[in-house]
Amino acid sequence: MAADEVKVLGSWSSPFVLRARIALNIKCVEYEFLEETFVSKSDLLLKSNPVYKKFPVFIHGGRPICESLIIVQYVDEVWASGPAILPSDPYDRANARFWATYIDDKWHPSVRAILMADGEEAKKAAALEEANKGLALLEDTFRKCSKGQKFFGGDKIGYLDIALGGFLVWVRVIQILRNVSLIDESKTPNLLKWAQHFSDDAAVKDVLPETQRLLEFAKFYVAKVKATGNN
């Protein structure tokens, strides 16, 4: 394997895999995308991530790196000559990392709970309230971090944009599937504009899942998870 050979193992539908792919696109790094499924994961993935056994897995020169935000940071450091992803200022960098962790640890679980609340209105309402509280915090964070520009990272997509942006199509699908309002003009006008700028960016638009395809996958995913009792 060539020292600079780059592979990404993951599913087209995964918001976490999207993070790795967008980071590589920002840096103009060529890579091979190896499609994985939720049903049967490859031997390469299981060997490369024996601890969590999940994607994405990023392989650079034969060496695997796991966890999406760690992958994004690695890409930013290794291909440092390309556009910066993490902020250069130490405080801004720490702040971006804080909110990215918040998205994964607090906000994403509430959004997933809306998706999984199929026919369970009380659970959906509780999860929706939590998700919207999180979006209100992120709306305020955007105003502070963007400094009046298009992205959390300023005039170009940065770390926090990637952290939240990977979920955008899932947000659209959940709004359709569960008839709820998340990112909209009335509650989060800045995030609504940000979402459009993010989706239209050259590093993003070609890897974002198509909404209808993801909608069909979401129905399959919910049914599968509920059948296994792992929701």
Automatic annotation (TrEMBL):
Q: Where is the GST N-terminal domain?
A: 4-83
What are the alphabetically sorted keywords of the record? Transferase
Question: Which Gene3D superfamilies does this chain map to?
Answer: 1.20.1050.10, Glutaredoxin
Q: Which InterPro entries match?
A: Glutathione-S-Trfase_C-like (IPR010987), Glutathione-S-Trfase_C_sf (IPR036282), Glutathione_S-Trfase (IPR040079), Glutathione_S-Trfase_N (IPR004045), GST_C (IPR004046), GST_C_Tau (IPR045074), Omega/Tau-like (IPR045073), Thioredoxin-like_sf (IPR036249)
Q: Which PROSITE patterns match?
A: GST_CTER (PS50405), GST_NTER (PS50404)
EC number annotated for this UniProt entry: 2.5.1.18
Q: Which residues form the GST C-terminal domain?
A: 89-217
Under catalytic activity, the entry for this protein gives: RX + glutathione = an S-substituted glutathione + a halide anion + H(+)
The answer to whether UniProt assigns keyword Transferase to this entry is yes
Record family assignment? Belongs to the GST superfamily.
Report the protein name in the record: glutathione transferase
Organism (species): Rehmannia glutinosa (Chinese foxglove)
